[in-house]
């Protein structure tokens, strides 16, 4: 009985209304853009999987509102028609709103079919070389970021 009273205090009318509203969402309004291209502009999709520094996670309609930072990797978009699009992102943010709308803003993004595996490996080698010859902390940090992105590019291209 004490647990029931505690639960009822937690569910204020505002929180309960938000939970009920979010519970009825059946579709997800999705926007995905980068500096180089707009991939989705308010399109309804089934699911989105994103790479994040807190761990990769999937987004479905009714997802709890969230703000996360994207790490270099592949965003998988599961479309209403059953198709799956995979897009590499270098970095960015994902925002999930109470109304089941989702926005991904990427620094740079490219469909994985456009990634040249040999060019990605070459970029990784160049980044590793820059790290070994870094003269100061800033150069070292920039090289480490380039290595992280390059490694994710190579993995996406495989």
Automatic annotation (TrEMBL):
Q: Which domain of life is it from?
A: Eukaryota
Q: Name one GO molecular function term.
A: proton-transporting ATP synthase activity, rotational mechanism
Domain (ATP synthase F1 complex delta/epsilon subunit N-terminal): residue spans on this chain = 29-109
Q: Where in the cell is it found?
A: Mitochondrion inner membrane
Q: What is its main location?
A: mitochondrion
What's a GO cellular component annotated to this UniProt protein? proton-transporting ATP synthase complex
What keywords were assigned to this record?
Acetylation, ATP synthesis, CF(1), Hydrogen ion transport, Ion transport, Membrane, Mitochondrion, Mitochondrion inner membrane, Transit peptide, Transport
Q: Which InterPro entries match?
A: ATP_F1_dsu/esu_C_sf, ATP_synth_F1_dsu/esu, ATP_synth_F1_dsu/esu_N, ATPD_C_metazoa, ATPsynth_dsu/esu_N
Domain (F1F0-ATP synthase delta subunit C-terminal) ranges: 116-156
Function, as annotated, reads: Subunit delta, of the mitochondrial membrane ATP synthase complex (F(1)F(0) ATP synthase or Complex V) that produces ATP from ADP in the presence of a proton gradient across the membrane which is generated by electron transport complexes of the respiratory chain. ATP synthase complex consist of a soluble F(1) head domain - the catalytic core - and a membrane F(1) domain - the membrane proton channel. These two domains are linked by a central stalk rotating inside the F(1) region and a stationary peripheral stalk.
Annotated family: Belongs to the ATPase epsilon chain family.
NCBIfam families annotated for this entry?
Answer: ATP_synt_epsi
Q: Describe, as the record does, how this protein assembles with itself and its partners.
A: Component of the ATP synthase complex composed at least of ATP5F1A/subunit alpha, ATP5F1B/subunit beta, ATP5MC1/subunit c (homooctomer), MT-ATP6/subunit a, MT-ATP8/subunit 8, ATP5ME/subunit e, ATP5MF/subunit f, ATP5MG/subunit g, ATP5MK/subunit k, ATP5MJ/subunit j, ATP5F1C/subunit gamma, ATP5F1D/subunit delta, ATP5F1E/subunit epsilon, ATP5PF/subunit F6, ATP5PB/subunit b, ATP5PD/subunit d, ATP5PO/subunit OSCP.
Write the protein's name.
ATP synthase F(1) complex subunit delta, mitochondrial
> What species is this protein from?
Ceutorhynchus assimilis
């Amino acid at each position: 009985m004490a647990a029931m009273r505690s639960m009822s205090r937690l569910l204020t009318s505002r929180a309960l209304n938000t939970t009920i509203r979010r519970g009825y969402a059946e579709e997800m309004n999705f926007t995905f853009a980068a500096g180089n291209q707009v991939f989705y502009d308010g399109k309804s999709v089934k699911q989105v999987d994103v790479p994040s520094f807190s761990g990769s996670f999937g987004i479905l309609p009714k997802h709890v509102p969230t703000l996360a930072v994207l790490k270099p990797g592949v965003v998988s978009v599961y479309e209403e028609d059953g198709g799956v699009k995979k897009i590499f992102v270098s970095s960015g943010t994902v925002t999930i709103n109470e109304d089941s709308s989702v926005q991904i803003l990427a620094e740079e993004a490219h469909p994985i079919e456009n990634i040249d595996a040999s060019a990605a490996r070459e970029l990784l080698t160049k980044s590793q070389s820059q790290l070994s010859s870094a003269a100061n902390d800033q150069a070292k940090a920039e090289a480490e970021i380039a290595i992280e992105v390059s490694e994710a590019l190579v993995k996406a291209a495989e």
